[in-house]
Amino acid sequence: MPTESKSLTKLPSILVVGGAGYIGSHMVAYLRRAGFIPVILDNLSTGHQDAILDEKLVIGDITDAAFLDQIFASHHFAAVMHFASVIQVEESVKAPQKYYHNNVMGTLHLLNAMLKWKVNRFIFSSSAAVYGEPLYTPIDENHPVLPLNPYGHSKRMIEQMLEDYAHAYGLQFFSLRYFNAAGADPAGKLAERHEPETHLIPLVLRAAQDKTSITVFGRDYPTVDGTCVRDYIHVLDLCEAHLLALKTLIGGKQGGIYNLGTGQGYSVQQVIEIASCVTQRSISVLEGARRLGDPAILIADPKRAMRKLNWKPHYTELKKMIEDAWAMIRKPISP
């Protein structure tokens, strides 16, 4: 039986899968402020129970079809938002079974439960990893999808499932391809926490806090300072895009596949320099060799989302993203 922090109700609500994770927990808070009723489904394998505030938490796994049946039988969901996935690229190469089982099979079970219980709106957390090595930048949605690893393959497979379910069963969906999520909600108690941490900004800030080192993997890329360039998007701007996508589907309009980024890039070296400025601490740097599969530049072309969703990122300055992330790292997190 699923366990919950509160009793189940029949109220219309939004199922947030992976709502105890970094982006999912921010989305839950965003939905609540927008007047929706979020219900969180999370197995807590990477999520954090202390990221759940006043919402319902259902603990369990989307690979369990019987478990999903119980949840859908107990609620009337207006839509499903799916943030739950394993995301470590290097691990996916060493353990692809984990990625295809959790990401692909889990999503298939979720879609089948939605089909059975006649829930027709789905918003999926996809990734720029579906593009692979970019043929051009900025990357628009017409760029070929040529993922380089099982993580990227799993995201693209799910997108293909969504397209097939839309054609066969009338599923209404958005697949939102993130570039590099960053920052934190300064009004909340939420921070980016992964174990192990693989994202650059929290690693740099952890090095600043703990007086340890950050490794720069390669300084010979064809960029402004030789280090990789990435497009960073504030987590609150991601949430805003998800909310607009949800309202679009509820309004009966068509979904689609959209990039979410700012359209501007910052190098690894620039991230370190800005973080040092924000934290007022020197950050020790170690030099490492290039990592296999690291493109020199990944920058989004987000114009389709801006045009179709009437979305515009508000927190485009990297300094603001790092300031918010640093404030949350320095702020004790309590349940």
Looking at this protein, list some descriptive labels.
single chain; 335 residues; alpha/beta; Rossmann fold; eight-stranded mixed beta sheet; three-stranded mixed beta sheet; 10 helices; 19% strand; globular; disordered N terminus
Can you offer a commentary on this structure?
The protein is an alpha/beta fold and 335 residues long. The protein has a domain at 9-181 and 233-261: 3-Layer(aba) Sandwich (Rossmann fold), CATH 3.40.50. Helix content is 38%, strand content 19%. The protein has helices spanning 22-33, 65-74, 89-94, 96-116, 150-169, 200-210, 235-250, 268-279, 303-309, 318-330; strands spanning 3-4, 12-17, 38-42, 56-59, 76-82, 121-127, 172-178, 180-182, 213-217, 229-230, 232-234, 256-260, 266-267, 284-288, 297-298. An eight-stranded mixed β-sheet has the order 1-4-3-2-5-6-7-12, with helices on both faces. It is globular. The two termini are 24 Å apart. Mean pLDDT is 89; it is low at 1-11.
Q: What is the structure about, briefly put?
A:
Helices cover about 40% and strands about 20% of the residues.
CATH class of the domain at 9-181 and 233-261: Alpha Beta
Helix content: 25-40%
The N- and C-terminal alpha carbons lie at a distance of 24 Å
Q: State Rg.
A: 19 Å
Number of strands: 15
Main sheet: strand order: 1-4-3-2-5-6-7-12
- Label the overall shape: globular
Q: Biggest sheet, in brief?
A: 8 strands, mixed
CATH fold assignment of the domain at 9-181 and 233-261: Rossmann fold
Q: Determine the strand fraction and express it as a percent band.
A: 15-25%
| String of helices and strands | EEHEEHEHHEHEEHEEEHEEHEEHH
CATH architecture annotation name of the domain at 9-181 and 233-261: 3-Layer(aba) Sandwich
Strand-pairing-aware structural class: alpha/beta
Low-confidence stretches: 1-11
Mean pLDDT: 89
CATH superfamily of the domain at 9-181 and 233-261: NAD(P)-binding Rossmann-like Domain
> What's the total helix number?
10
